Amino acid sequence: PSHSYTGQGGQQSEDYESEEQLQHRILTAALEFVPEHGWTAEAIAEGAKTLGLSVAAAGMFHSDGSELILHFVSECNSKLSELLQKEQKLVQLGEAEKKPIDEFLRDAVEARLRMLIPYIEKWPQALSILLLPRNIPSSLNLLTSMIDDIWHYAGDQSTDFSWYTRRAVLTGIYNTTELVMMQDSSPGFEDTWRFLENRVADAMAMSSTASQVQSTGEAVVQGLMGAAVTVSKAETSRAVR
Amino acid sequence: MAAARLCRCRCRALLSRPAGAVRARRGLAAGPEMHFGFQTVTEEERREKIYQVFENVAKKYDVMNDSMTLGIHRVWKDILVHKMNPCPGTLLLDVAGGTGDIAFRFINYVRSVRQRQLQRKLKHHQNLSWQQIFESYQKDEFNSLGDSQVVVCDINREMLKVGKQKAEHLGYSEGLSWVLGNAEELPFDDDKFDVYTIAFGIRNVTRIDLALQEAYRVLKPGGRFLCLEFSHVSNPLLSRLYDLYSFQVIPVLGEVIAGDWRSYQYLVESIRQFPPQEELKAMIEDAGFFKVDYENLNFGIVAIHSGFKL
């Protein structure tokens, strides 16, 4: 399967898929074995078996299962994008209300984290594998593009430094909520969602505090300038007399 | 005129005999010219000579391997099996596997993976009743190899004999079978095996393309082809040291330890005649394998080629 013809009459199309597409199919099939085997080559081997391939096909991937995790993360991100796009369409068509920013962010992060629930037992293992130096570039890439997506659909069109601060803040919120979720045993993960709500509220408060600080700072500077001018004028007038 | 026509007929008759027939007339170049080390021989002669080489060295094969490579061949074979990373239930065909080195390592690996699997299963089964535990033992769920099997195939009876003796001596009996067969014409059905390995054997095969095609045939879809073989060193300094060692030391070791200088001269020469990494990769791709890749060990002294039947 090295040609990538598409639609060569249903029956033939399986022979003509590319290697990447075949690997994609194997990884998707392997996901259902993750709760049992973890993010390992064994799960990939079981996935290959369901597709009618030999278990040796798992040798195509790295033996620590990192490709499986990256595949899963990228699939979740695509699902989130689709979800946000659908919501945006509804708002544009006028069938839904535009959410305020904090609610939007909260819902987006919650939707994304809920996708982890079927694999939550083995997710800590996945996080540790994603932190291996070899995997950091790809996992960081996936994380930043997801955060970017969320802000884009939230309507962020900033072109100044706040672009960076917004993404940094949301990345922090997402990561900390993910970690809280790992050790959350409350029913329906309500502790996690409450934590998320508080963090988003904090972030909103912080941005308004920041603008308050800025205007206060400006006021203080103006006051000092005025005082300096008054003092220097008083000096010159005394000198003149 | 008539004589010339007669001569031509005779030539055609000779050439059309089946490949198995011995070509008696050495004067007539009755087969394609091939290399045997640095000599030039016909295809049939090469097969015979190689058979004799391994018949002679069979008993001292393992000892010579250790002394020639200073024991490093064990590490190379370990790396091959680690790269394979077999899970329990894998069916392995080890071609030219003679004395069984790869087969034994495979069994050890699968056994330890299986033990870990069983431990994990038992942890989950802490709350079973005695009845349930008894039943699971009945079902033979706890077999130590998890249905993995290895078939060792070799063309040389002597090598297989030595291998069987070693297996008995080391206590390997389960999941192991020994078959006499030619890599160019394997006595197995299509789509049977999960992994096909050939360690330090493909160099001795006369028609490498046929062996690769047979490998493709007997592998299941998704199956993996792994080849461990001496290859070409690109680093010039290392290459000179390696040549020095190969041509000066190894035949001498062969004479001293095994009493057979010629066989080891052949060995060293055949390494030089074998295609380099990229060429072998192209040949494997020609046979129909995908994701073909190679990994150099020790700067190219040895290389592991891997391909998948997709």
From TrEMBL, chain A:
It is found in: Mitochondrion. GO terms for biological process: ubiquinone biosynthetic process. Pathway: Cofactor biosynthesis; ubiquinone biosynthesis. InterPro entries: COQ9_C, COQ9_HTH, Ubiq_biosynth_COQ9. Gene3D superfamilies: Tetracycline Repressor, domain 2. GO terms for cellular component: mitochondrial inner membrane. This is Ubiquinone biosynthesis protein. It comes from Erithacus rubecula (European robin).
UniProtKB/TrEMBL annotation, chain B:
PROSITE patterns: SAM_MT_UBIE, UBIE_2. The keyword Cell membrane does not apply. Pfam families: Ubie_methyltran. SUPFAM superfamilies: S-adenosyl-L-methionine-dependent methyltransferases. GO terms for molecular function: 2-methoxy-6-polyprenyl-1,4-benzoquinol methyltransferase activity. GO terms for biological process: methylation. Keywords: Methyltransferase, S-adenosyl-L-methionine, Transferase, Ubiquinone biosynthesis. Component of a multi-subunit COQ enzyme complex, composed of at least COQ3, COQ4, COQ5, COQ6, COQ7 and COQ9. Interacts with PYURF; the interaction is direct, stabilizes COQ5 protein and associates PYURF with COQ enzyme complex. Methyltransferase required for the conversion of 2-decaprenyl-6-methoxy-1,4-benzoquinol (DDMQH2) to 2-decaprenyl-3-methyl-6-methoxy-1,4-benzoquinol (DMQH2). This is COQ5 protein. It comes from Erithacus rubecula. The lineage of its organism: Eukaryota, Metazoa, Chordata, Craniata, Vertebrata. The gene is Coq5.
